[in-house]
Structure formats: structure tokens, C-alpha cells
Amino acid sequence: MKTRECPYCHQIISLKRCLKYIYRGTNYATICNHCNRSVKLEKEPIPFKYCVFVGFLSIYVPMQLFLYVCKMSFIQSLIYSLPIVVACILVVTFLTFRRIHFSGDM
């Protein structure tokens, strides 16, 4: 089965419906926008513990680097670290969407 494919009608479920999994979590079902049947994720696309670990490291390591190695102020370090955090969030979101596979709702 392809990524984001409905197990019933074999059409691709829209990206808008899959965006719910970024902020609501993976325990919820969604509805196929073609056949209007309820579908649920087969498994968690990326384990939550990895996302938390990468999220922590993506802000902590650059912040410490800019604070202590480059000797910047806190606000400057925060501003220089934000693009790195945004890039990490985009990578995790992209990987999540690439690994989404649906099964029929139980």
C-alpha cells in the first residue's frame, strides 16, 4: 500500500486531513475524503520518544554553541537557533507524512 492511501478505495487521503496528526497525535481516526469511511493509522509513523529527543537536541545544542562558543547574548543565541529548530520541525513533519499508512477503523 502506498503512503496515505485509503485501504477501502485506494485513493490518496488529502494532506489537509493528515495534518491533524501533527497536533492531535496518532490515536485518532480520520475520514477518507473520497469514500467517507473512517480510517486509522496502522502504527505510529515516528515514535514519540524520538521526536522529543530530536526536539530537545535541536534547540539545546545550537543554543549552547552560540552562548558559550560564539559568546553571544541569550537573545542573539535564541534568534540564531530558531532556523535550526524550524528546519528540524520541517524534517520531522516530512518524515511523518512519508511514513503514514492507514488501516480500516476497528
Describe the overall structure.
It is built from 4 helices and 3 strands, in the order ααββααβ. By secondary structure, it is mostly helical. A 3-stranded antiparallel sheet has the order 1-2-3, with no helix packed on it. A hairpin with a 6-residue loop joins strand 1 (30-31) and strand 2 (38-41). The two termini are 19 Å apart. The mean pLDDT is 83.
Q: How is the secondary structure organized here?
A:
Blueprint: H1 15-18, H2 20-24, E1 30-31, E2 38-41, H3 48-69, H4 74-98, E3 102-104
Antiparallel strand pairs: 1-2, 2-3
Helix pairs in contact: 3-4
In whole angstroms, the N-to-C terminal distance is 19 Å
| Mean pLDDT level | 83
Uncertain residue segments? none
- By DSSP, the count of extended strands is 3
Q: What is the topology, as strand order, of the major beta sheet?
A: 1-2-3
Main β-sheet: number of strands, strand sense, barrel status?
3 strands, antiparallel
Rounded to the nearest angstrom, the radius of gyration is 18 Å
Keyword list:
mainly alpha, 8% strand, 53% helix, 106 residues, three-stranded antiparallel beta sheet
Quick gist of this model?
With 106 residues, this protein is mainly α.
